[in-house]
User: Fold this.
Amino acid sequence: MDLSVRRVRKEFNGFPALDEVSLDIRSGELIALLGPSGSGKTTLLRLIAGLESPTSGAIFFGEEDASHKSVQERHVGFVFQHYALFRHMTVAENVGFGLKVRPRALRPAKVEIRRRALELLDLVQLSGLEKRYPHQLSGGQRQRVALARALAIEPRVLLLDEPFGALDAQVRRELRRWLREIHEATGHTTVFVTHDQEEALELADRVVVMSQGRIEQIGTADEIYDEPNSPFVHGFIGDSSALPIRVENGQLWIQDRMLGLSLPGAADGEAVLYFRPHDVDLVDGCGGCIAGTVAASRRVAGTRRVELEIGGERARLEIEVPLDHRASEKSRIAFKPRRWKVFYRDGGIAAPKSPNPKGHESRILALTGT
Amino acid sequence: MALDASLAHRPAVVAAEPAATTETPVVRMVLIAAALAFLAFFLLLPLIVVFAEALRNGFEAYRSALTEPDTVSAIRLTLLVAAIAVPLNLVFGVAAAWAIAKFEFKGKAFLITLIDLPFSVSPVISGLVYVLLFGAGSVLGPWLKSHGIEILFAVPGIVLATIFVTFPFVARELIPLMQDQGTGDEEAALSLGASGWQTFRLVTLPNIRWGLLYGVLLCNARAMGEFGAVSVVSGHVRGLTNTMPLQVEILYNEYNFAASFAVASLLALLALLTLGLKSILEFRYGDHIAAAKKH
Assistant:
């Protein structure tokens, strides 16, 4: 089932939770809605499900306008963050609920409902637990029951709200792999909400990065990580370091020093340089590089992170150095980022704005260092 | 190494741990005794007195007091009033709690305040409201009279006053419970294709059943025991509009103490029965109740 969200806006008490959001999802895709809390990702999911109705805009299920359909009519499988299992029903009764409440004409026989429930419990690897009650299950098991229950109604779309949010890291990783398998086995169009970038990047075919009620970027894990299109995405996905700079005559400057990074043909202006802390080359001596004084250093797993003070403006940034690097305090380190991006400052927000996409491209430049 | 050291120290720490309170045993005993004496004096003693007075002239007298026609009619009326008022308040309470806990609408705070009104108004005033509304001198009075409808000093008035007074019990019990449970289960049921009614019947109702039972028990106890409001609207017509509490008062005022206490003992029994049922529910289904409240 193709899904299409068209210019959807949702306000709560006059405050826009979603602002003109458009999104196309292809049949069979596994999509992650990723963003910090308050970015509108759960609202978007609930709008797709029909648990909320849009203030304006439309939501299409295939060719059909579902905007004003009720949640029952949309026929979606929704997995809630806290599972919302019916606590007075056994696991099997929970899974069979969606079939049991069908109108008489469409309702399978009791035996059939039970058979289907057991089959789904087998799919989610919970065979033998059908007589238990939800409070007798672990968090991970409850999550699986919730998924089996949603799958039981043969949904057109599967929607999951922070599916692994309440689980510990170990179970999370396991369930993540398992959800991918289920997705491939059943072929449902699946949308899940998460604030965990690792989860989104690892699991999803495409990631939708959201912030403040808008979609910042849509792309594969590689595209989102390697080609972030805004300072927000660069900062939100993965580690990143930022340094306020100036673009002048196709060169990047910090105060009166050239950084040795050039953007031929780029317009002059105040901007911010972004790069990944691990994606740097340390250099000896500094003729055209970034140099700073070590302000702090800390050990992170297999590497060492140092915090550098750059220039008199006391701009601080982080880079990664080898473990054996003698990064004592107050010593100077010079480096060059291998891959980097520059976003122009635009009234405080370093988001370059340009009316035509081509111009846009030329203003956001990512170069591989030389 | 530091871990080992701390582990080795642990038993010593536990042994040296002081009691949670520092009062001497004497102080503790005195406080406990005071509390028990208070309980005995204000709760246990009156209860014993009621039954002792009722049985003062022997069991035969007790039985004949309870089978006296006016008393029988009072018992019947009380049961009838409760049988009408409790189901109505049950339906109303569930509907109000459902609306307040599961939906957002304007005027919600006002509605909650309104539901609490019977708790904050003296029952006598509640009764008086109906006298002013349906009495001979009221706007509705002449119209009702010309159509031969009797409300005041008749069963309908007593039922209305009782409903008013017992109005908040079920709703008050359910609102916090349902608010606590949130709307997740209902949304899940709807997303699985259940209709509104199916969702209520199969998901919401089972989630609130113990709270609902509590509310109904309390509501029933109050409906049968209400004195003030009913006293104002009843008119005290013997054998016709006297409920049990009113009958108790009448007999008492006639110095017929044994009969008065006999009827009173029935009400006391009702109270004990209510408490007993409540305790049994808590004991047998404590886990369910706790789980339902926690979830």
Remarks:
- Chain A touches chain B through 25 residues (CB under 8 Å).
- The longest helix of chain A spans residues 169-186.
